Amino acid sequence: MCHVIVTCRSMLWTLLSIVVAFAELIAFMSADWLIGRAKPSSSEEVDNRTGGPQEPYRPTLGIYGRCTRISHMQFSRRDTLCGPYAETFSEIASGFWQATAIFLAMGIMILCTVAFVSVFTMCVQSIMKKSIFNVCGLLQGIAGLFLILGLILYPAGWGCQKAISYCGPYASAYKLGDCSLGWAFYTAIGGTVLTFICAVFSAQAEIATSSDKVQEEIEEGKNLICLL
Predict the structure, then answer these.
(1) Domain CATH code at residue 19
(2) Alpha carbon of 97 to those of 46, 104, 117, 187, 218: distances in Å?
(3) What are the TM regions of this chain, as residue ranges (predicted)?
């Protein structure tokens, strides 16, 4: 018989697992990893909100995507265009970024799997006599290691030609040049930290769902058990 067990710690672990998976996925897909050098706008370009000249635009570059501003000569205005610059894996600008993409993708796949499984932990608490929380916690720890490897390798690719075109001639491995880090990089770091927090907190979720109070509720014949 399926016993639905909901505790504060198990629910918090489930929510954090889902948030971490989405945060890493969004960061990976974003083009806002590097913010390039400011490109001055033409004196003819007018900001529709202020009526004055537009501020210099800073293009952004991701692991496999980019955002840039394209000109419309007929209308004397520019639109921002975002999309992948690499149509195939081999076209990613740097070998280090290719490795980063592999490690991040592996970590994100594991996190998404754990996030999916975590929803069912309210009803299923063990797999082959193994605690599902402990198994998921171990997988989250492994995913965190993949994410760390990806984030360490990513700055090594700042010396590629693509990065130099955005960050200037002084850009090199682990040196930003004229670029700055975008929100996607910081989100990936934050998600990695939360991944390890989830891995540790999974043990607390397992303790909460296997406590004496839960066993007493099960012995009383209750199918829905909610505890603080």
Answers:
(1) 1.20.140
(2) 37, 10, 30, 17, 51
(3) 12-35, 96-120, 132-154, 183-203
